[in-house]
């Protein structure tokens, strides 16, 4: 639970309102409107890559040569690739009954409409009118389970959140109550300048004094999984309150630093607090101090503003970074904290939780951020510290906002606006990286719930439109990719373990999975993907002469088996998902097959899936100079094949593939000078891409780099604004080469 009084003291929200006014008044640098930007200059002259013709113009060493296209069926976009009868016979996905569809939608993505929407869904629980005679609200808090709202003004008042009705009001406080805290259960605590009091919902008729205070309270926090509260006086001295035994002890511990920040270990055995030159961890055996560890800060004048403690980690923030140490550390003096890269958003409050499903520390944060136009936003988001992914932020009302509180789960948000408190319940909180979908599929595979995987795969294929920027075929690819990843892990463990019992267990698992793949399209596709990955891992990443004979042998065996299995499947089911045709192209590349050996497969695949990213990326990779082509072949193929698809979709998918290919070049200009890609068309598709809420931020980062390099200012602003709104930007995540292309993202960071 967020101690709202303490949070407000650390970060006055009135300051946010002033900041918003300053931005509006133009006292800070704000990007000029798009209409005032300089005109886009003429780009680098592009080689004619009209690959619908038989001869492809290919740049080699600065010369233009003519070379026959490897796939002659692309010579004209007007010639039909397959018969009309073949396309007409294409089976339609079988419909699901409404109940099954509802269950699968909840499992796989979200309950929001449309299914798999990335946008957060908050249901307003309503507004509680405090009345004009309520007096100034000194503190308020949500109960840990989100059932109640505690408001401290002239009186101590409790509201039931669901009904928004007054539960009861309490007297019994002589002084002005300044702090409130609501641990787990129905009992809450308040503090005035002289004492701590408590009351229980449904049984208390008045506040009961727990303990007199020797001086006013600065801050306090409770343990998430133990009946313990730690508090800090204004002079920094710390006390411990055992709420079960009603035992209060002043500890020989002091909190230092410019701000008094305190975090409590979930089991109540330790606290993390600020020190004059860092943070200090104190560990206790009940009230007895057993260990003290000082962790020095990394730079002068660094001020720790927030801290939280999960079941696995101690975390704190200075507003620019999040630092972490393990929760339990036998050699604490030697351990240095891990530091996240600089945060784009400035956190105002943190609630730390450990997500067992993803083995990560999840933080619910109230953050302030400014978009590329300089507008201030106050938002709530879930953040994974380890990789800086986060949920789509829910924007709070900034006008008249005085304070914010969260419940102990981070599912309820209360905001104080004038004489009212608005409460919102979080309904859907999805992550752009498809983590939830992958987790559900991986869990089903590990438990060998193959029927569920088949249902999820069919549901993905039956989808209309886009989910997280991905079409139905790509969503199917996410399902099979996840299965293949877990399958590969099991196969590797089977080969590595020397324990006979474990080896037998893995062997039985693999046998069941192979049996499933005989009749399941997602099972077969996953097995093929697994075999391709297994073969390449055995080969290694080095140049050919560095590969061992055994490595070559395993690769050749796995690819040969996969080719035979896949050819048999496609013969029986030419309408197989696009990812299976993509596997066939990857297999052909790895085996050094001729283009003609898979031309008929590619002809059918292009007719069915003219704009599928994985399929045509695989062919473009195969046509690269290091495999079977020359400079320009890949771009030529893409320009030709995309003509067979819907123009708007083709432009968007072409842009995604170009983003993928950018990784092969030291600078974006190499895409034009060497690869002969139509970079301008790719960048112009940026607006179409962001309208679909794309799943992968590195697509946008690379497009932003291209827009910056070719001075396409309109698209640069579109992309930068979207990036600020949806992703915690981490320069080190994308590589040094892209940092110079990101000035727009850093022009208007919150102060």
UniProtKB/TrEMBL annotation:
InterPro entries found in the cross-reference section: Quino_amine_DH_bsu, WD40/YVTN_repeat-like_dom_sf
Database matches in PROSITE patterns: PROKAR_LIPOPROTEIN
Signal peptide positions (record): 1-25
Keyword annotations: Signal
Keyword Signal among UniProt keywords: yes
UniProt-recorded name of the protein: Anaphase-promoting complex, cyclosome, subunit 3
Organism: Roseimaritima multifibrata
